[in-house]
């Protein structure tokens, strides 16, 4: 840095008290006003569990949005997770640490004061003049003193360091909020999936029982000459296929149970999880859809990226100030005595005061490269911020598309289930009239059970994606933690 630049920076500071480096300003809000080319205003599926119309309108997500599902069991699971989740506890502890580090960093803005007392037994060389006024070469020395020091924040380096520490704390606070919101959504999605899997397991066990009944009928028919051996082999294959589909469902159900236990801060074998059935969950009807300009203020991950950008901006100021002169002032005062009894005597008092100026001249290019590295870090944080914003917009667009697809999938699953039910009713009447074999009615019952399984999965998907929509919109968070 040239002498002219140093003088110019000094003149700026002395004239206006400014700090070197860029003053941080929040990024401008996005110009786009929609998340997708055609954002729906209403998403409709037939009635029933997870059915009905969801209306999207401008608004803010409620702080406890999960109550909109009307499920006491879901509320209990989320309350337990917020109170006992170990990952969330670790995040909160990290937030406390970041706050204390910020408060500790503020100490650089104030003078340092310390006091001390020492006692020494000294033997001096006889080739040198003795230190005490009694010309003794062996003596005791007691010292008590107070030291005061202060570094003038001439170019704002200390203020920038405090600014950086505060921004880092803010980033940690936003990340803690993001972790909380993610936990809530994960608990909700896992609970819905667990309920759907339980229904699928129950239906699959019924399918296996019906397939076993069909196999027994086929064996009897073979014995009386009413069926061929190939018919028996085909039925055995269908039973084996039904039995093979059960273990993966039971495995997934066990995994969802274990995950819920972990999320709520307990072991898989500890305690019991509140039972939740899909039929006891209400689909939220009114969905608030905030504009992109509001989203960047409502999503904690975007706010965390902004805080990281702020910290990087302050880092540029710190690196710049480190290349400029540093002025320190200090003073000390105390008493020296050969014994503690005379330490407070006015004759034993001493004091000193002074100031120093340090200007880095040569450090092998280290300070210059650190300044350039700080600017590169700022560019990196800026790119990461813009990437986070775009990812958030994509997240909202994806959830909107998922909700529309879920409604269509639920409608198809309900149509399939109604067709299977109508088929069973018609087949049962024909079986009573002797128009079809009893096995036809069993096959129709199996088809209805399989339709129930697909419907349960479609219902869970719509409920889970609705929870994901709330998370995508910021999860009802609007202010920093702590």
Helical segment count: 9
The low-pLDDT segments are none
Secondary-structure element order, N to C: HEEHHEEHHEHHEEHH
What structural class do you assign from the helix and strand content? alpha+beta
Radius of gyration: 37 Å
Strand order, sheet with most strands: 3-4-6-7
Tell me the overall shape: elongated
**Percent range for β-strand residues:** 5-15%
Helix content: 55-70%
How many β strands by DSSP?
7
Distance between termini?
A: 41 Å
Largest sheet composition: 4 strands, antiparallel
Residue-averaged pLDDT = 91
Give an account of the 3D structure.
Helices cover 58% and strands 13% of the residues. α3 packs antiparallel against α4 (157-223), α7 (300-321) runs antiparallel to α8 and α8 (366-432) runs antiparallel to α9. The chain has nine helices and seven strands. A hairpin with a 6-residue loop joins β1 (42-45) and β2. The mean pLDDT is 91. With 482 residues, it is an alpha+beta fold. A four-stranded antiparallel beta sheet has the order 3-4-6-7, with no helix packed on it. It has helices at residues 3-16, 72-84, 86-105, 157-223, 229-263, 292-298, 300-321, 366-432, 438-472, and strands at 42-45, 52-57, 112-123, 138-152, 286-288, 326-337, 349-358.
């Amino acid at each position: 840095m040239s002498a002219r630049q140093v003088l110019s920076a000094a003149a700026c500071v002395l004239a206006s008290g400014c700090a070197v480096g860029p003053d941080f300003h929040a990024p401008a809000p996005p110009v786009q006003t929609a998340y997708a080319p055609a954002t729906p205003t209403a998403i409709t599926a037939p009635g029933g569990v997870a059915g009905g119309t969801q209306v999207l309108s401008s608004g803010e997500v409620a702080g406890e949005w999960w109550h909109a599902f009307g499920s006491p069991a879901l509320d209990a699971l989320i309350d337990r997770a917020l109170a006992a989740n170990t990952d969330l506890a670790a995040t909160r502890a990290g937030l406390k640490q970041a706050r204390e580090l910020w408060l500790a960093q503020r100490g650089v803005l104030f003078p340092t004061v310390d006091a001390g007392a020492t006692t020494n037994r000294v033997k001096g060389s006889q080739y040198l003049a003795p230190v005490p006024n009694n010309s003794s070469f062996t003596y005791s020395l007691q010292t008590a003193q107070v030291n005061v020091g202060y570094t003038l924040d001439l170019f704002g380096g200390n203020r920038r360091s405090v600014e950086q520490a505060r921004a880092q704390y803010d980033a940690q606070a936003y990340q803690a909020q993001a972790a909380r919101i993610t936990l809530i959504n994960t608990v909700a999605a896992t609970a819905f999936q667990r309920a759907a899997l339980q229904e699928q397991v129950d239906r699959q066990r019924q399918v296996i029982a019906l397939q076993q009944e069909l196999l027994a009928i086929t064996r009897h028919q073979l014995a009386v000459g009413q069926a061929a051996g190939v018919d028996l082999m085909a039925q055995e294959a269908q039973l084996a296929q039904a039995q093979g589909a059960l273990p993966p469902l039971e495995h997934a159900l066990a995994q969802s149970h274990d995950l819920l236990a972990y999320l709520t801060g307990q072991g898989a074998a500890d305690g019991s999880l509140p039972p939740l059935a899909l039929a006891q969950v209400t689909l939220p009807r009114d969905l608030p859809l905030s504009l992109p300009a509001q989203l960047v203020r409502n999503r904690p991950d975007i706010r965390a990226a902004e805080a990281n950008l702020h910290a990087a901006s302050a880092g540029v100021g710190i690196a710049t100030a480190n290349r400029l002169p540093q002025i320190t002032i200090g003073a000390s005062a105390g008493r020296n005595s050969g014994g503690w009894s005379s330490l407070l005597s006015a004759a034993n008092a001493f004091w000193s005061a002074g100031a120093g100026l340090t200007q880095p001249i040569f450090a092998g290019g280290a300070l210059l490269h650190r300044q350039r590295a700080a600017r590169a870090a700022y560019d990196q944080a800026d790119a990461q911020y813009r990437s986070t914003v775009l990812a958030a917009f994509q997240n909202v667009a994806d959830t909107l598309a998922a909700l529309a697809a879920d409604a269509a999938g639920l409608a198809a699953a309900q149509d399939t289930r109604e067709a299977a039910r109508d088929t069973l009713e018609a087949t049962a009447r024909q079986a009573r009239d002797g128009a079809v074999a009893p096995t036809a009615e069993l096959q129709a019952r199996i088809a209805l059970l399989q339709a129930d399984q697909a419907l349960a999965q479609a219902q869970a998907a719509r409920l889970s994606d609705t929870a994901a929509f709330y998370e995508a919109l910021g999860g009802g968070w609007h202010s920093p933690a702590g």
